[in-house]
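ESCALATION

Customer reports they have been waiting on this structure for their group meeting. Please prioritize. Original submission:
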Amino acid sequence: MKNCVLINSLIPRFNKVLDIPGDKSLSIRWILLASQALGKSKAFNLLESEDVLNAIISMRKLGVKIIKRDDYYEINGVGLNGFEHKNNLKINAGNSGTFARLLCGSLAGNVKYVKVIGDKSLSKRDFSRIVKPLKLFGVKIKTKNNKLPLTIMGSRYLRPISYNEVKGSAQVKSAILIAALNTPGQTIIKSKFSRNHTELMMKNCLNINLKSKKKSNFEIIKIIGKKNYKNFNYKIPGDISSAAFFIVLTILSNKSTLKIKNVNFNKSRTGVIEILRKMGAKIKISNLRNYKGERLADIEVVSSKNLIGIKCPRSFNTKTIDEFLIIFLVCAKAKGVSTFTGISELRQKESDRLKIGAKFLKSIGIKIEEKFDSLKIYGNPELCINKQIIIKNYLKDHRVFMMSCIAALTLGGNFKIYDKNSINSSFPNFLMLLKKLGAKIDNRYIN
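Update from on-call: job pushed to the front of the queue and completed.
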């Protein structure tokens, strides 16, 4: 089975500049929103990963014309409630919780049955968090134990809702906002802070009547729906979640520097940078600018010694949710104890990342204390591995594979890392970029 890599040497020192592939969250949102616009929309630097390509295939099944040109994708939108397809259509969301949940919001006004399925990992994840608000709109949803597969049929008579979103889930908030586009009147969401890509795209690209007001630890979002919007063009910035692996690689490497250009630096996504800086990492932000409501920046990183543990504030959790695994790796090499609390949401990702992170740290000789929603890590600045480590990524979580590769390239040892194909869902050229920096990786290994 050609789905395993061997890494048995540290990465040599490097001084490089990288461009990171397009942001997955923004790529999926553009596809969904452009599909319901009026006219032709274009996206440049769209991420060509399995999750995004699955989204394109799915929208085509719903009657949306999507064409790949030389350097951009083009969508001929069908307008609100404009999907055309056979009844009982089956759509495979693959591994993407973002696409599956936001798609359900898009189908709120669609009056034919659609069955949404996913892969083994996605089928284990909780969908009750979107089923509840969508049913309040008047959407019919059938599901067993609030997991995929689910069958959904929208309504011509949607009603606006007021909803209290308490998880800090951008996926839930976005599903509600997209459903509200098809709904007459004003929908109101009281939401714990989370990523705001959907709101920014709606306000700055689509001219949607949307207002948000921030309170102490939540925000109130009001949106008026049932108004068609025009096509829009978009250039997808680099994904900070993907950049995080190369940032940590540089921090833990010897005498190396790295500049990553054109990264999405949205304030709801910068927790990884703030945490690493508090731990003593040398990270500089330059060329900060605005693009259609999003912030973009170049990130410059230098190898960092004398890292210190962190008592991570809970307020960082929602804006760091996809980067905790790689942050745990930095904590392993930091002096002192690092503590993370209120992070049970990690158990709801592609895999139970809290459990897997704790297991990985123990396997490399780090003392940890794991509870349901917390993790304590006793760092060891002298950590150096001189044994074989085998990583079997049973749920094929792309971030588990990538974190393991960064560990192998910075900690030593002989790593045998399975499920290489998992990166296809979000970062297909991950290994290629590592090799560009000088990493020696044997990805021809079979067994």
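Sent to customer with the following note: The radius of gyration is 22 Å.
Escalation resolved.
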